[in-house]
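Quick one - inputs below.
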Amino acid sequence: MNQDRARPWLLSAPALVLFLVMLVTPLVMTAVLSFNSFDFYGGIKPTFGLENYADVLGDSYFYEIFGRTFLIALVTTLICALVGTPQAYFLLRMRPLWRSVMILVVLGPLLISVVVRTLGWAILLGNNGVINDALKNLALIDRPIKMMYTSGGIVLALVHVMIPFMILAVWAALQRQDPATEKAAESLGARPATVFRRIVLPQAMPGILSGSLIVFSLSASAFATPAILGGRRVKVVSTTVYDEFLNTLNWPLGAAIAIILLVSVLAIMVAWNRLVEKRFAGVFE
Amino acid sequence: MAILELRDLTKRFGATTAVDHFTLSVEKGEFVSLLGPSGCGKTTTLQMIAGFETPSGGSILLNGRDLRSVPARQRGLGIVFQTYALFPHMTVEENVGFGLEMRKVPGDERRRRIAAALDLVHLSHLSGRYPRQMSGGQRQRVALARALVIEPELLLLDEPLSNLDAKLREEMQLELRRIQQEAGVTTLLVTHDQSEAMALSDRIAVMQGGRLIQEASPFEAYDRPTNAFVSTFLGKSNAIDAHLEETRDDGAVLRCGDIRLAGPPSPARPGPVLISLRPERIELCDAAAAHVSGRVGERIFLGDQWLFKVETSLGELLVVRPNSGRREPEPGETVHLSWRTEHLRILAAEPAA
Ligand SMILES: Nc1ncnc2c1ncn2[C@@H]1O[C@H](COP(=O)(O)OP(=O)(O)OP(=O)(O)O)[C@@H](O)[C@H]1O
Ligand SMILES: [Mg+2]
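Output:
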C-alpha cells in the first residue's frame, strides 16, 4: 500500500530533481536578485526593496521596449496564423507521398540552429544584402530599402522560425475532424471556399488558438533573432535584459525586467486560455 | 419512370475492380438496399452516385439526366454518412439549416422547414444542443433531418445504423422506415446487415465482389435465392452438396452420397448441384416419415427459438424450432428430420475454388 503510493514519486524523481535544479532554482534566484540593489561603485547589495521595479515601471524608455516586444510578438502570431492555417489544410489534403515531403520542408528549419537561420536572414536583408542587390540590379530602387535593424525584419525572421509550431498545432486539430463533414457540406450545396470558411476553419480554431499561444509566448521572449536582426538599435525585452546583465552589469535591474516579462507573458497566456475555453465550451472536447 | 438508373457502373482502383458493371434502377418512392459483405463495393457505389468518386465506366442517371459532369454540390441528394458527419461547431438547428442556407432559402421559410424536419425526427426539444451533447441515436436523427430538409429527390444512407447498439438499432429501423414513408422520399441504403435490409426495404440488391448477384423483394430473395451466396448471406441456410440425377415436370431426383432425395422441379441440368434448405423448414418426425436421421450435437437457446446442430449422413444440419414451451431433444438424442419437398432449393454448385 505504502509502496504503491511511493512508486509514482520514485519514478518521477529524476525529472523532478532536474526541474527543481535547472528551472526553479535559477528562477527563484532571479526573483530574489530583482529585489537587491546596485550601484556602480559597490556593485550588488543584498538589500530588499522594490526600487528596480519602480525604475522600470516609471521609465517610458522601458514602456517603449515592452510595447515593441509585444507588438512584434502579436504581428508575428497573426501572420503565422494567416499563413500557417491554409498551409496545414493543404498538407492534410495532399497525397501521402507529397505530404511526407512537405512535412519535412515545414519542419526542416526546426533542425537548424536559430542563430544560423537568423544569420541567413541577415545576409538576405542587409543594405548590401541579396534582396537589395537584386532590386538595385533590376533598377527597381536606387537606394537600399532598410530591412536590417527594423521591427519588420525581426517579424519576418520570427515568422520563419515560429511557423512550424503553428502548422503543427493546426494540423493536429484538423486531423481530429471527420473528413466526412466536408463531404456533407458539399453535398448540401456548399462551394469549396464556403466549406473551408464554414466547416474547416471553425474546426481548426482550437488548433489556431493554441498555436497562437505558443507562437506569441516564444516570440515575446525570443532572443537570438532580435539580437542579430535588431542589434542595439531595435531593442526588445530579452536583448535589454542581456545588456543589463553583461554591459551595464546591473544584474538586479535586468532580473526585474526579466521577471516583469515572465509575469506579463504568463498573464496574457492565462487570460487568452480563459477566453478560448469560455468561447468553445460545449463545442469541442 | 425510374428516378435513379445505374448502367454498367464500374470503378477500378489500380488493379482492383471495386464495382463491376453494376446495373440497377430505383423507382420513385422506393426503398432499395444494397446488401453485401464488407469490401464488396457498396460504399464506392454510393460515393459515385453522390459525386465523390468518378466512375471508371458506365453511367448514372438521375431523372433521366446523366450526372457525369454534375459536381456533388449540385446533385441535390440527401446523404447520411456512416459517421453522421454532423458539424460539431453548430447546434442541431444550424446543422439542419445549413443546406437551406446554401440554397438561400429566406429566414422565415428556413425556420419553418427546420422545425418541420426536426418534428419529423422527434427532436424539436433539442434544437439548441451541440452534437457532442447528444446520444448516438439522436445524432443519427439529426443527420437524417439535415439530409431530408433540402427535400432531396434521392436519399442515400451509408450503413446509418451500424454505429448503434443492437437494441437501439432495432428501434431506429422502425423509425427510419416511418420517416422514409412520411417523407415519401426515394431511398437507397447501403448495409452489410441482412436483417436490416430485409426489415427496411421494398427491394434488395445483393452485391458480391462488385457485382450484382440478385435483385428481388426481401421475401423473394430469402425464399428463392438464385445462388448459394445469397442463400447463406440472407439468413441461415443448410447448404448440401448433391448430384442432380434427373429432372421431370413433377420434380427432381437428387442423390447425396447414398441417400436419394426428391426435389422440386428445377431448370438445372443433371450434374453436381447445391441444395439449400432453411433451418426453420426442417421438422422433427417419426422414424418412418424421416428423410434423414441424426444425433443432436449441440443445442443453443436463443430466447424465442432453439437452434440445434444435428449430425446426419447429409452432414451437419442446422434446425431451428420456435420456443413454444414443449420438451425439446437433448444433446446426444437421436432425432428424425423431414421437410416438404418444395422447400428445397436447387442451386448451381459453387465452382471449386
Ligand atoms: N480509394 C481506394 N483506393 C483503392 N482501393 C479502394 C479505395 N476505396 C475502396 N477500395 C477497394 O474497393 C473495394 C470496395 O470498397 P468499398 O469501400 O466500396 O467496400 P464496402 O462494400 O463499402 O465495404 P464495407 O462494408 O467494409 O464498408 C475494397 O476492396 C477496397 O479495398
Ligand atoms: Mg462501406
